Amino acid sequence: MPLPFLASLFFDGLPPWAPEPVRLAQITATLAAAGLTKWYSSGRRNPSERNMHGRVVLMTGGTSGIGASTALELARRGAQLVLLTREPPSDPFLVEYIDDLRSRSGNQLIYAEQVNLADLHSIRQFATKWIDNSPPRRLDMIVLCADTMTPPGGKRLETPQGIEMTWMVNFLANFHLLAILSPAIRAQPFDRDVRIIVPTCSTYIASPRIDASLLDAVSTKGGGADKNWSPHAAYARSKLALMTFAKAYQKHLDAYKRPDELPMMAKVVLVDPGLARTPGMRRWLTRGSLWGLLLYLIFYGLVWLLLKSPHMAAQSLLYAAMDGNFLRLSGGRLIKECMEVDCARKDVDDEAAAKKLWESSDKLIERAEKEMAIKRAKAKKEQEKKEEEAKKAAQVEEIESLVDAIRKGKAREAQKKAAKDGKGTGKTGKTTGSAKK
Ligand SMILES: NC(=O)c1ccc[n+]([C@@H]2O[C@H](COP(=O)([O-])OP(=O)(O)OC[C@H]3O[C@@H](n4cnc5c(N)ncnc54)[C@H](OP(=O)(O)O)[C@@H]3O)[C@@H](O)[C@H]2O)c1
């Protein structure tokens, strides 16, 4: 069929139903431009392969978007995944998701542990449980994909401890988790290729510098006022803080003196996956509204053309997870499109800013955890008091019902006796009567 058609094109020229040559050239040029745009916006594919069998990977955000694609690819290569999820492992949707991930990857070693990244206590509970193991548990990789973003026009949200939500989930949760897991990372054998993969976003370029006023603003309970808050500014500063911390964390790991005097090999890798069509991005584009969703569907062709699929966005993360060169290089590098790029902001390497960020985050966590511990202790006391009162009430009720039963028993006995006495009196009357006769 194609051959006769091509032959007739060659000998007889364009068929009558075909568009004119100019129109045809326009259509071809448009399609070629669209193809090129799509090819460019999809980004590069990961060129590095590696067998991940036996490797233990802790992962946040593995249930959605780029994180879900990364989880699937790592599981396909045999990694043992521990997904840190907001919901408990018994949640029916999560059970189904993990079942699906297991069957698609052919890997049964995928588990979930509940860690709500908006809750410092939940993070501490998981991380202390993880490090409380002797000998130390195997840990090859931590992938920190979870994040949150308020859609444009949305309201500023806070945790119950007064910490701005974007700062909490995108930065402070990762800071807290890595700070507690630090002994577990440092305890890995020298020759284990340990990687901490930190996804970021180019919005960090627009963030104001990390200084005292920015650090005060993220927690209004600490006395700060978040006057310049906007969803975009909050997201940008959380990413700049995350990158500054990630670089400082690499230095913190490098500075550790191992008991065997061998160098620390753990590497932090920052990754900018590029813009992708993930649920988070959809929420942001649609402003979380139905009208937004309608517009999103109408212009989906454009979104498809310009944004990557989650699978393509995961390529740089997979490169950071699998490329062998990271072993030989120093940590703290930024990867974009499966290659190393420079950070657009020099202040991510500013040691003074990193120190200020680290200290103020420690202080904030200490204050919030103390407050939470007092609240938990109060709640526990109240619960105990309620239980004590309920126990006393139950005892009083039991005694009262016992007294009531005794009283009723006595009353019944008295009634019986009275009835007996009544009968006896009746007999006596009769006897008396006959005696009269
Ligand atoms: N998408 C993009 O265009 C883009 C661009 C540049 C960089 N990035 C980066 O890539 C990473 C992934 O982005 P994405 O768009 O794929 O994200 P996403 O689809 O919005 O998914 C966010 C993930 O974070 C989890 N999460 C949110 N709040 C949580 C909490 N309190 N506790 C535990 N888990 C929580 C979500 O869990 P649930 O499933 O329970 O909601 C979900 O798995 C992010 O670090 C982002 O900054 C993305």
UniProtKB/TrEMBL annotation:
The keyword Nucleus does not apply. Keywords: Coiled coil, Membrane, Oxidoreductase, Transmembrane, Transmembrane helix. Residues 365-405 form a coiled coil. The keyword Oxidoreductase applies. Residues 410-424 have a biased composition (Basic and acidic residues). The chain crosses the membrane at residues 290-307. Residues 428-437 have a biased composition (Low complexity). Residues 410-437 are annotated as: Disordered. Belongs to the short-chain dehydrogenases/reductases (SDR) family. This is Retinol dehydrogenase 13. It comes from Remersonia thermophila.
